[in-house]
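Render this sequence as a predicted structure.
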Amino acid sequence: MGFLSNKVERDQIKAGDHIYSWRAIYAYSHHGIYVGGSKVVHFRRKKDMTSLTGTSIDSSGSSSEKSLSICEIFPDCGFSLPDSGVVLTCLDCFLDGGSLYCFEYGAAPSIFLAKLRGGTCTTAESDPPETVVHRAMYLLQKGFGNYDVFQNNCEDFALYCKTGLLVLDKSGTGMSGQASSFMGVPVAALVSSPLKLLIPGPVGVATVTAGMYCMSRYATDIGVRTDVVKVPVEEMATSLSLAETEQDSSEEEDTEEKAQSKEPPQKKSR
């Protein structure tokens, strides 16, 4: 296991592995499940599936010119059902010219905290490979709900396939360690700001900020958090629909409350 991430060769991966590849000079990574036969099942925005040669958006929301439907090696590369972001591609198209990395499961807390970047490992244990592949192929036929960069992205998809764990409360943070890293940096800086008066020198402030950043990542890891539940893949459609309905209802209530707060007070009749 590398200090930043776990780079592997193609002959080292096997069916059921959670793999990823860095994009845009290590700015973010794209995740998927290797199902064997040089094929990968992964999750993207639904609108990426409608264009043969258009612009695709990866897990960070960044765009790159890449076709998922034209592959000279595998005719079925780019297969996905209508209105679904779950897609089957060959390994070459998944990597898009990048290197291959393998996500680690069952990492010790000390190893997890030592990582400078999120989205490379978790303390949660993986289910058997055949179960992982079954979940990925089942979701290829059924979908994985609406894509969201911070709450339901490609890493969330791969984590669910590997563990069966799901965060039903979509109003909070998703399972993605990569998203937690992006959100953890400002949180760590904010929390450590009041401590600047107590810590002499920039080195001490940087140390505290780094510690807060690592702890915020650890607190959102699916191996330690308590707001995740084990959901059978056959019940995923119901669970995702319920979560999305609750989220929509919450958003509607917030909108109504804001509208009511802006209404001018009514004059009392004499």
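Summary. Confidence is low (pLDDT under 50) at residues 50-69, 184-193. The longest strand covers residues 28-36.
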